[in-house]
Amino acid sequence: MKKYFFLTGILVLSLSCSHDRNPVSSNDGSHFAVYFLKDESLTTAEVIQRPLADLELAATPWFDAGDLVFYDFSTHCLYLKNDKSTLFEYFERGHFEPVLLNMPFVITAGGERCYLGSLHSGALATMPPGPHMNELDVWHFPKDVLHLSRHRASREDVRSDPRVRDALMRAILFHGGVRLEL
Questions:
Q1: 6: exposed, middle or buried (C-beta count within 10 Å: 0-12, 13-18, 19+)?
Q2: Which residues of 119-130 are buried (b: 16+ CB within 10 A; e: fewer)?
Q3: Are 146 and 70 contacting, i.e. CB atoms less than 8 angstroms apart?
Q4: Residue 12: how many other CB atoms lie within 10 Å
Q5: pLDDT band at 99, cuts 50/70/90?
Q6: Are strands 104-109 and 63-64 parallel, antiparallel or unpaired?
Q7: Position 21 confidence tier, pLDDT thresholds 50, 70, 90
Q8: SS3 letters across 102-157
Q9: For residue 177, with 0-12 CB atoms within 10 Å meaning exposed, 13-18 middle and 19 or more buried, which class applies?
Q10: Which of 32, 86, 124, 138 is deepest in the core (most CB within 10 A)?
Q11: What secondary structure letter does DSSP report for 84?
Q12: Is 5's pLDDT higher than 80?
């Protein structure tokens, strides 16, 4: 009987392993991804009231789990494998080009749309309507770090969506922040 359980266990393990997948983390983009909208002329103000399910996303993500080293969930800093300049074609001298201002993006996790964010200029007097990537943060954070800023007027921090946290954990990209022990 022990031999039967042992052989069954070996069979299950061998069938679950695949040579074309990372056995530790499957970074196929389904865990975590950031998408622009298909119609890049739309602004955040034009889509903020629409249900996320009604927004047509671009065919491929702007970046996804495969582009991350890890996501620090305590600060919402995304640590990238490469320099973030590859993500910002229209970013020069510390400011977004007009084509990027108020451009909406959708954060997805586990294949689900979780929340809407936008690219925002810190030089504007207006507050973005939700989570955002501020051009000043893009400029001042290290070249491999993106910061997703919080909407200050909202009581709920949608960046802390448990679906995002769980997807990052499954992808082994979750970092809970600094831990101090005294």
A1: exposed
A2: bbbbeeeeebbb
A3: no
A4: 10
A5: confident
A6: unpaired
A7: very low
A8: CCEEEEEECCEEEEEEEEECCCCCCCCCCCEEEHHHHHHCCCCEEECECCCCCCCC
A9: exposed
A10: 32
A11: G
A12: no
Report d(CA 150, CA 14) in Å as an integer: 44
Q: If you search the block for the tokens 């990209």, which residue do you land on?
A: 173
- Sign, Cα dihedral of 177, 161, 55, 170: positive
| pLDDT tens-place string over residues 40-68 | 999 999 999 999 999 999 999 999 999 99
Contact at 8 Å (CB) between 98 and 167? no
Residue 48 corresponds to which tokens in the numbers above?
């903020």
How many whole angstroms separate alpha carbon 156 and alpha carbon 153?
9
Residue 14 CA to residue 155 CA, distance in Å, equals 48
- Closest to 150 measured CA to CA, from 142, 140, 160: 160
- Token look-up 């991350």 returns 68
What predicted TM-score, i.e. pTM, was given to this entire model? Answer: 0.80
Q: Tell me which residue has tokens 């009987």.
A: 1
Q: Which amino acid is at 165?
A: R
